[in-house]
Design goal:
By secondary structure, the chain is of the alpha/beta class. It folds into 3 domains: about 90 residues, no CATH class; about 200 residues, no CATH class; about 140 residues, no CATH class. Strand 13 and strand 14 form a beta hairpin.
Length: about 550
């Protein structure tokens, strides 16, 4: 956030938090709840001077809460807490850092590309490889460009990796979009270099360890205020990276609700461009940097409790370098696909910024937010329902704009075929199994069938397909998938041994397979497998009935 807007934003956020506590009882409850949750959080941390000082500060606030009886003093205490939280969250934006970073990132990535792929350099001389060959931005780009001139954007991507914010920042800058304001986990600010850029490129801090209601209210109001001030925002509606590798099915709607609040406040303030537009974005990776840590966290069933991983691959510079190195060497791609825009209520939006219903008729969305007196006003239950409907539309858009690549195609087929052979084992026993392989020819046949099925869905606009695998035969698809899944991780995901396909790391196989959940492909594969098995049994029975020298027709 620009320097001239900071104090204004803090003042407005605190005022709204105070306004939500309407009486003395609510004020006291808000302060007490915050003290309880903050002390509980701090007591779990390792002893340190800063931790001990913070505990003393909260103990002092507890004494003041108990000793003071008048509402005004308690309201001042709530104001103090909300102000501290708001200043902690507050994002910064330095145009100079933004200018240099947007120049530096493509050069850095391109330099790495050139350094690690000499064969590609010689092949394409005199032109040098471009980052655009790796980060593919597609979808409704032109529509989003027009809407940014008509209102304020909320970009809502899927979330696979901590690299997502870098990929999104580069992709949107490359397509001519202004910088995006976004919330970043506190762990991402521990690296001094990355922290410097995040501090100055509009990122605001989100400490997911803090569970007090006041802190969550500050985050929500900060997001709404920044939208009202005209800052285009980026929210990850999944809340955190997908631990399982699957496309998000259930979204965290707290920050998404800022769209409705900002729209209502824009109408009440008589702003020239009150509209807020939601741009769904699906990120699709051939490989994911933190896949090993994420799937391990998911399978230990602690992801929902721990919520944030402090020591994964993203915290290791050498692993980031190795990942990018292999991505470029593989000629791999990252797809950043913009879906059709929505309004904060889940309606489709035209490039002219007009909301439309399912029949294509224009909708006056101001009527959605009027109170009984006919004036725009927030209404908690009503607005939560609007946001829930928006969340459902986003999940549909995420799946529709997912791009299927060779790694996920092969992982899905191998996993489902193995699972069919070991269907009596529960998932955890299955993943721990070390035996089991598949015939290359069978995997090739099923992979080609799945590719055909994906192409059919892509023709209906229900999914996307990487053009490098479109129309390719089964053998080519399997070999491409093997190369992709074997090039980066500490252990190969799956490998070929003679005429057999052998799973090496079933956890990672599960992770990459999960990306194709939600499309019912497993039913197709199960049916194909059953048909193949029936055919084999029939052929075997026929062979037993034939005379010794008889040749099958």
């Amino acid at each position: 956030m620009r320097a001239e807007d900071k104090e204004r934003a803090v003042t407005e956020v605190v005022a709204r938090v105070l306004a939500s506590a309407r009486d003395a009882k609510a004020v006291e409850a808000a302060v007490a709840d915050t003290i309880y949750h903050e002390r509980r959080r701090l007591e779990k941390e390792k002893p340190s001077r800063s931790r001990d000082a913070a505990l003393r500060s909260w103990d002092d606030r507890k004494r003041r809460l108990v000793s003071e009886s008048d509402e005004q003093t308690k309201r001042e205490l709530l104001s103090e807490i909300a102000t501290d939280f708001a200043r902690e969250v507050l994002g910064n934006f330095d145009p100079r850092v933004y200018h240099y970073s947007t120049k530096l990132l493509p050069l850095m990535l391109s330099g790495l590309l050139n350094a690690t792929s000499p064969t590609r350099i010689l092949k394409n001389l005199p032109e040098l490889p471009s980052v655009k060959d790796r980060v593919i931005v597609d979808g409704e780009i032109e529509v989003a460009r027009e809407l940014k001139e008509r209102g304020t954007l909320i970009v809502t991507p899927t979330h696979l990796s901590n690299l997502d914010s870098i990929v999104l920042g580069y992709g949107f800058y490359d397509q001519g979009f202004p910088p995006l304001t976004y919330g970043a986990g506190l762990n991402l600010f521990t690296n001094p270099l990355i922290s410097y850029f995040m501090h100055n490129l509009g990122a605001y801090k989100v400490d997911r360890r803090k569970t007090a209601r006041v802190y969550k209210d500050v985050l929500k109001e900060y997001a709404a205020v920044s939208l009202e001030l005209g800052y285009h925002n980026l929210f990850f509606p999944g809340g955190t990276r997908s631990r399982s590798g699957a496309i998000e099915q259930k979204l965290k709607l707290g920050l998404l609700g800022a769209g409705v609040r900002a729209y209502v406040n824009n109408l009440r303030g008589g702003r020239e461009k009150p509209n807020v537009y939601v741009i769904p974005v699906t990120l699709s990776y051939e490989l994911v940097l933190e896949a090993e840590t994420l799937i391990d966290d998911f399978l230990k069933e602690v992801g929902q409790h721990r919520y944030i991983i402090m020591d994964d691959e993203f915290a290791q510079p050498l692993r980031i370098y190795s990942f990018l190195n292999r991505i470029f060497e593989l000629d791999s791609r990252i797809y950043l696909t913009l879906g059709s825009p929505l309004d904060p209520f889940g309606n489709s939006v035209t490039r002219e910024g007009i909301s439309i219903d399912g029949r294509g008729r224009a909708i006056d969305t101001t009527r959605y937010v009027l109170d009984k007196s006919g004036k725009p006003a927030p209404e908690k239950l009503r607005d939560e329902e609007y946001t829930r409907e928006l969340g459902e539309k986003l999940v549909t858009a995420f799946h529709r704009n997912a791009t299927v690549m060779g790694s996920t195609l092969l992982a899905f087929v191998v996993f489902e075929m193995l699972r069919a052979n070991e269907k009596d084992a529960d998932l955890y026993r299955f993943l721990r199994a070390s035996e089991g392989d598949l015939a290359f020819a069978d995997v090739s046949r099923e992979t080609e069938k799945l590719r055909v099925r994906v192409e059919a869905l892509a023709a209906e606009g229900k999914i996307r397909l990487d053009d490098r695998i479109r129309g390719r035969g089964g053998d080519d698809l399997v070999l491409a998938g093997l190369r992709a899944l074997g090039i980066y991780h500490n252990r190969k995901v799956v490998e070929r041994r003679g005429d057999r396909i052998v799973p090496v790391d079933r956890n990672l196989l599960y992770y990459y397979r999960n990306r194709l959940l939600g499309f019912d492909f497993e039913k197709d594969l199960s049916r194909n497998g059953a048909e193949a098995k029936a055919s084999a049994l029939t052929e075997g029975a026929s062979a037993r009935l034939r005379s010794p020298g008889e040749v099958p027709a």
